[in-house]
Structures are given as structure tokens and as C-alpha cells.
Fold:
Amino acid sequence: MFKYPKVNYIGNKEKIAKWICDQFPIDAKTLFDAFSGGCSLSYEAKFRGLEIYTNDILKINYHIANALIQNNSTVLSKEDIEIIFSGEPFEGFMFKNYSEMFFFADECKELDLYRANIENLDSEIKKSLAFTLMRRTIDSLFDLNYISFTDEGEIIFSKRLSNDVVEFWKTYQLDKKILNEKRLSYLAYHRELLTKKDAVA
Structure:
């Protein structure tokens, strides 16, 4: 199994998952993770060979469990990625509910396109993988200094990113109309942070 991917879920047990599993009875064979959240505990228990049952009220956490716990071998192919990115952005759920609140309007329209296209993938596991990736979103990569943008809105990738992440986001670009003087000033500062983090990586 791969190392548990960072999910950034509030209250996640990633740092103590190994300790929790160490407290299980030696003969334990099954784990029922009643409030599975980002699945860090379930993932560690799966790594140790336990049979896992997850539960959570949030739909996205169902997708995380489906992608990381139920899934053992399915990956997204190049064709799947092309399906996700095909078509034109449009104003849907994300635009109507989150535009200029958590995301820029153009980002919301892109996310609405991806949400719709994910439903065209040919298996539930692939849909869950795509939604789990989408949950991280472009803002998470930006906030963690894994990406930045030029003054023209072109995406810049950190050398710390894996090739599959770069492939997933390589066509993304900011709309130059949103790059006012204040945002351009912040982007210059942000690019410096990315460069400094890459220098010590």
C-alpha cells in the first residue's frame, strides 16, 4: 500500500492512527470505523490487514472511503482524465453557492464541469477517486505552496509535486481579468514562498 495521502480533514487522526491501532487486541481481525472522516485510521488498519467497515454522514467521506479503503487497484487512466476535463465550464451548483466566497467565479465554473463529467466515468470506484482528488481542489495546492501563478495567470508547479498531479492540473489557468494590482502583488510574494520551499525540499 502507498503512504496515506494528505486529506486535510478537520479532526483527522493521521498523527495518532498508528498509536490507536497499537491498542487493538492482538487477535483483532475487523475494524468498524463509525465516524471515518478522512479515513486515516481505517487506512492504517487496512495496512495492517484488518477487514474494514466505514461509516460517515458526509457523501464526500463515502467517496474517500471508497477510493482509499474499498479500492485496492483501480486508478484513473489518461482517458478518464480526458473525460473529466472535456467540455466547457458552466454555471452550476458550485457557481451558485460558492462563487466569490471560497473560490473565484471561474474556478467554480471549472469545478461544475468536473463534477458533471465525473458522473460519466465507468465505475463507482473511479468516480470516488475523482471526487476525492477534486476535494483537494486547486486552492489547497495553492495554500500549501505546491503551485503558484505567473502574472499572466499561467500555473507554476513545485518540484515537490508528483507527475500525476502535474498532469491532472497542467491545463489550468487563471482568468487574467481577476488579476488586479493587489492580487498580482500577492502572487509575486507567493512565488517567492514556493521557490524558498523548493530550495529546502
Notes: The chain has a mean pLDDT of 89. DSSP finds nine helices and four strands in the chain. The radius of gyration is 19 Å. Residues 150 and 156 are 7 Å apart (CA to CA).
